[in-house]
Amino acid sequence: MSENKNQIKKKGGLGRGLNALITGSYDKKEETANTPEVAVNAIAGIPIQSVQTNPFQPRTHFDKEALEELAESIKVQGIIQPITVRKLSENTYQLISGERRLQASKLANLEVIPAFIRQANDQQMLEMALIENIQRENLNAIEIALSYQRLLSECNLKQEELGDRVGKKRTTVTNYLRLLKLPPDIQVGLRDSKIGMGHARALINISDIDKQLEVYKRIVAEDLSVRKVEELVRQLSIENTSKPEPAKPELSEHPQAGEIKRVETRLSTHFGTKIQVKSNAAGKGEIKIPFLSVDDLNRILEILNY
């Protein structure tokens, strides 16, 4: 989080002291862009222009005002926590974590930035970037859920392993992942803070998508509390159980209908949007991936590595 001026005064020389530990005898006058070769698995000051951004960065939007506040803090305090990079070549590094600190340091016109230099392959880069963001950034619930999903699908982690990596119980991880089963409109509402995590968890228990959207619109329009939404959901559940089930027509089901439905569910969870998979008896068909905006399209393209 960004630091305001009052926080700066309270911290005194703490940032300078930590930087002294990081770079040895710390003196801003000694900082130059011609920092000598540094070893892997060490902390040292490196030229800020030699750091490439992280291609696996799961978060693309950063609050401009918050960055400017952090930049002002850095001008006074320096970098309190080093960024983490991997070494690509003699004078080139790639960011693993610390995107906000890197951007703010550029705004503060720093030439040298303290960094922990380590070795990492692409999968480790993605995993570390996702975990660092989950733990340190003020992510909304959907961003956390998508990050969890990416860790599961792209880093080949199981839910138990994921819980250990991010320091959360498996039930907590599961609750976030369930959010991705909500219709796109509700996911966007949660992302934009129109509803809270408690509202979303209650809406998940409504099996009918139309009813989910109906209750969601009421939440937004009437500013309903989580308790009120939970009561609505319980009432809907009672009404549904009291209604007799309509007679099902005796139609021959498509032999692959069950598998198609499972594929739809897996794809919808992976992409964070309701995906339709259609197939005919000959096995031909199509996949429809809806998107709500250009940003949403870019998010989907990022998942596809396009």
UniProtKB/TrEMBL annotation:
Output the InterPro entries linked to this UniProt entry: Chromosome_partition/occlusion, HTH_ParB/Spo0J, ParB/RepB/Spo0J, ParB/Sulfiredoxin_sf, ParB_dimer_C, ParB_N
Which GO cellular component does the record give, naming just one?
chromosome
Record keywords, A-Z: Chromosome partition, DNA-binding
Fetch the NCBIfam families from UniProt.
Answer: parB_part (TIGR00180)
| One biological process term in Gene Ontology | positive regulation of sporulation resulting in formation of a cellular spore
* Source organism per UniProt: Adhaeribacter pallidiroseus
Tell me which Pfam families the record gives. HTH_ParB, ParB_C, ParB_N
Q: Where is the ParB-like N-terminal domain?
A: 44-134
Lineage in the entry? Bacteria, Pseudomonadati, Bacteroidota, Cytophagia, Cytophagales
UniProt xrefs under SUPFAM superfamilies: KorB DNA-binding domain-like (SSF109709), ParB/Sulfiredoxin (SSF110849)
Q: Which family does it belong to?
A: Belongs to the ParB family.
Q: What is the protein name given in its UniProt record? A: Stage 0 sporulation protein J
The UniProt GO MF terms for this protein read: DNA binding
